[in-house]
Amino acid sequence: MYIVDLILLFISMLILIICVLVGVAFLTLMERKVLGYIQIRKGPNKVGFMGLLQPFSDAIKLFVKEQTFPFMSNFNVYYLSPMVNLSISLMLWLCMPFFSVLLSFNLSVLFFLSVSSLSVYTLMLAGWSSNSNYSLLGSLRAVAQTISYEVSLALIFMSFLFLILSMNMLEFMKVQKYIWLMFLMFPLSMMWIISGLAETNRTPFDFAEGESELVSGFNVEYSSGGFALIFMAEYASILFMSMICVLIFLGGGVFSFIFFLKLVFVSFFWIWVRGTLPRFRYDKLMHLAWKSFLPSSLNYLLFFFNFKMSIFILLL
C-alpha cells in the first residue's frame, strides 16, 4: 500500500509540473498578445490558429540553437545555475493545496518561504559564473532587490498568518468562506502584490534586466537552452505568485473552476503593469522596501497580534 501511495504521489507531482510548464508556455503567449494590443498591434498570430502554437515553436527554436558559453566562465556553475533556478521555481508549486492532497502538509507556508529564498543563490551564481562585469552587476542588483522585498513579503504574510493561526495553506480557504481577506486587509493585499512584482523582477522593478543600462542583466551571457530555462523559471514564479495571491486574499477555492479564472486575472494584472508603468529608479525601489513597506508591515503585524490577543483574552 505504501508503494502504491508513493507511485500516486509521484504521478500527481508529474502532472502538476507538466501543467505548470504548459501554463508557462501559454502565459508567454498571453503576455505577447496583451502587450501587442496595449501597443495597438496584433502580437503573434501566424503560427497555428491565432498564434496558439507560437510558444512551442519558440521553445523548439531556443533548445535547438547552439549553446555558447564564455571562454573564461566557471563552466559547471554556469551550466547548472539555470537548471537549479527552474527546479526551485517548480518545487515551489509542491506546497499548493491539491485535489489529491499531494504534499499539502501542515507547514506548507514555511516550505514556501524557505524555497522562495533559495532562488537568490541561483541568480547570484548565474551572474558570477559568467565572468562578465555586466552579468555580475545585474546579479548583484537582482540579489539586493530580492532580499529587500523578501523581508517585507515575510512580514506581510505573518500578518495573514496571525489571522488564521495555522501554517497550512488550506486554512486560507476555510477562513475566506464568507468574506475575502482582501476586503479585511486591503492595504496589506496591495503591498503583497507590489512586493510580489519586485520579488519576481517584473516591471516596474525589473532592474535585474534593465536593458538600457545593463545589457540584459545577469543572463547576458546565456543563450539557447540556458536562457530558455531562466525565462521559464521567471514565468513559473509569476504564475506561482498569482496563485498565492488568489489563495491568501482572493477567496482561494482551489477545487473550483473560478479559482483558475482568478489566477488568470492576477497573471493578466502582472502583464498589464508591464505594459503600463515605466521602470523605477533603483534608489526609489530600496526606499520603498526599507522606509515604506518595512515599517508599515511591522505596524500591521503588531496590530494583528494585539487584535488576536485581545480576542483570546475576551474569550477567556
From TrEMBL:
The chain crosses the membrane at residues 6-27, 76-95, 107-127, 147-166, 178-198, 227-250, 257-273, 293-315. The gene is ND1. GO terms for biological process: aerobic respiration. GO terms for cellular component: mitochondrial inner membrane. Pfam families: NADHdh. It is an enzyme of class 7 (translocase). It is found in: Mitochondrion inner membrane. Its main location: mitochondrion. Its EC number is 7.1.1.2. Belongs to the complex I subunit 1 family. InterPro entries: NADH_UbQ_OxRdtase_su1/FPO, NADH_UbQ_OxRdtase_su1_CS. PROSITE patterns: COMPLEX1_ND1_1, COMPLEX1_ND1_2. It comes from the Eukaryota. This is NADH-ubiquinone oxidoreductase chain 1. It catalyses: a ubiquinone + NADH + 5 H(+)(in) = a ubiquinol + NAD(+) + 4 H(+)(out). GO terms for molecular function: NADH dehydrogenase (ubiquinone) activity; NADH dehydrogenase activity. Core subunit of the mitochondrial membrane respiratory chain NADH dehydrogenase (Complex I) that is believed to belong to the minimal assembly required for catalysis. Complex I functions in the transfer of electrons from NADH to the respiratory chain. The immediate electron acceptor for the enzyme is believed to be ubiquinone. It is a multi-pass membrane protein. The lineage of its organism: Eukaryota, Metazoa, Ecdysozoa, Arthropoda, Hexapoda.
